[in-house]
Amino acid sequence: MILAAEDIHLYYGDAQALDGVSIEVRAKEIVAIVGANGAGKSSLIRTIAGIERPRQGRIRFKGTDITGWPSHKVCDLGIGQVAEGRQIFPTLTVDENLEVGAYLPRGRAAKAEARERVYAMFPRLAERRSQYAGTMSGGEQQMLAIGRCLMGQPELIMFDEPSLGLAPTIVQEVFRVIERLNADGATIILVEQNVAVSLALAQHAYVLENGRITLKGTGKELLANDQVRQAYMGL
Amino acid sequence: MSDLTASGRAALIAFAALLLVLPWVVSSYVLSVAVICLYLAYVGQAWNLMLGFAGLLSIGHALFVGLGAYASGYLFAKYDVPPAIGIVAAVAIAMLMGAVIGYLGFRFAIGGVYFALLTIAFAEFVRILLEHAKFLGGTQGLFLPVSQESRRGVDLINLRGWPEMYYYVILALCLGAFVLCRALLESRVGYYWRAIRDNPEAAAAVGVDIFRFRMYAVVLSAGMTGAAGVFRAFYDNLLFPDQVLNIEKSIEITLAPIVGGVGTLFGPIFGAFVLTPLSELLTDVVEGLKDLGIIAKNVKTDGAKLLFWGLAVVLIVLFKPTGLWPWVCRRLGLVKAPGARS
Fold first, then answer.
1. Residue A125, class by beta-carbon neighbours within 10 Å (0-12 exposed, 13-18 middle, 19+ buried)?
2. Under an 8 A CB cutoff, do B205 and A152 touch?
3. Chain B residues touching A82 at Cβ < 8 A
4. What's the rounded mean pLDDT across residues A174-184?
5. DSSP assignment, residue A14?
6. At the topology level of CATH, where does B6-332 sit?
7. Could you report the per-residue pLDDT of B200-224, keeping only the tens digit for each?
8. Closest-CA residue in chain B for A81?
9. In chain A, which residue's Cα lies nearest the Cα of B209?
């Protein structure tokens, strides 16, 4: 078990976003989290990343209790995050965006190799290394967001809606990248509106509804589940 | 300046040479205007560090000038502490104040415009406090002892001497601020600041400790501005809360960088050298018109200056929102594309 979140309760003011959520992630797995808009998927990711503080519950990563840790410490321990909506730094160049991703002690040592790895993985970014990130296409920005996350040498990468708003061919590329990162040894938590694809990729999956886990199982099990097929895949 | 073109480098060298020889070739009046230019360029650079680099808007920067001025001025007037030592206290007090404002603002997530309001509130609060502080002269003002013979020579420890000395002191401060800001921009801190400015959410996601780096920006900017206060105190030799910490002074600090280009290194300098001579000229024109009886004698000349500032900001925001400097650079080909950042 690389990550275990137990009984997470998160509130925004009085509104409850997560109500006793528990998930477990084994090393080198892809775990999918499925649910409607507002079910609490992003809240769960943000809580694990240390951006939100749970009112109750525990989060353990590689045996360390990281509950309530600030996000930069969580990051430095090896939890990377590709946030929703192509969150890049628009007035920084591609190179500078990557630079920002590699300043924590964890990423600093292997910065040069990490940069080469990212550019090898995304040749488009290499071509645009001194271009301002804000002037690139949506797909390129998403690749940059992923590349910047990799600069921090994460062991666990959390993707929040990585295919949202992208052209179909780019969506395919994003999923290929996720598969490849997983094959290279990274553990992945994948929050996706594209339920069919994410369940097909995932070894394990959870269904989140109104801040609660209502179903869990292997990716295959959920993919075959009638409820899931009806509610999220329109079948 | 690796990103400057040949003509950019030539322009920079010419400008630097002009600044160096200026006191020897111009009248004392022009020299006093140049001192104002450099002063505004310096505080503009410090202010720009917050808004331009880290994305934090302060409209209360005169607060730090005031704290620096009063701290060093009081130590000198009362205890004969020379400004060379007083500046340590001045900068420390300004930094402390910056830390308090930053802590309140960032710990309680007071963002954007509300943070700007917080800076105004503190500036006004301290101004009123100073007006009631009898030991600092209150509304009667704090006077720094100065004698005729101390207006000659060069005494850097006591910041007393020829007008030319003040010019070179503020020039040195300007250069120091420029070099410091440039080094910061190239460092991890600078990258983090720009990342936070661009997208705080994404910065947090890649592990930037936003609170800490915002604090660095405020504290550093406050400290630099506090040092300007020391210069102000010993250049003017008299301090009134209403003149030093007035909100007008805070706004004045923001003008040069806004006109020159927020977030650029040369912007505050360029803006100061464009705006100051123009507003001085305007003041002269208004005075002249008053003498000729075209404008009523009781019209306040300062009002014309404020109108001009307002107009300048409106024009910039409408037509050149990124400031004059990036535009001039492109027009004259001073910088290699796309590095419009210098």
1. buried
2. no
3. 205
4. 95
5. T
6. ABC transporter involved in vitamin B12 uptake, BtuC (1.10.3470)
7. 989 988 989 999 999 999 999 999 9
8. B205
9. A72
Phi and psi angles of residue A215, each rounded to the nearest 5 degrees, phi first = -150, 145
Q: Which of B261, B276, B272 is nearest to B330 (CA)?
A: B261
User: Rounded to the nearest 5 degrees, what angle is found at the Cα of A148, between the Cα atoms of A174 and A193?
Assistant: 35
Of B195, B198, B201, the CB nearest to A83: B201
The confidence score (pLDDT) of residue B337 equals: 62
Q: Taking CB atoms and an 8 Å limit, are B204 and A74 in contact across chains? A: no
Q: Where are the domains of chain B?
A: 6-332
Nearest beta carbon to residue B206 from set A90, A132, A149: A149
Average confidence (pLDDT) over A92-104: 93
Q: What ipTM did this prediction achieve?
A: 0.89
CB-based contact B191 A100, cutoff 8 Å: yes
- Alpha helices (H) in chain A, listed in sequence order: 41-48, 71-77, 94-101, 105-108, 111-121, 123-127, 138-150, 168-183, 195-201, 219-224, 226-233
Cα distance from B254 to chain A (closest Cα, Å)? 22
pLDDT at B184 over 70: yes
| CA pseudo-torsion sign A223, A229, A231, A234 | positive
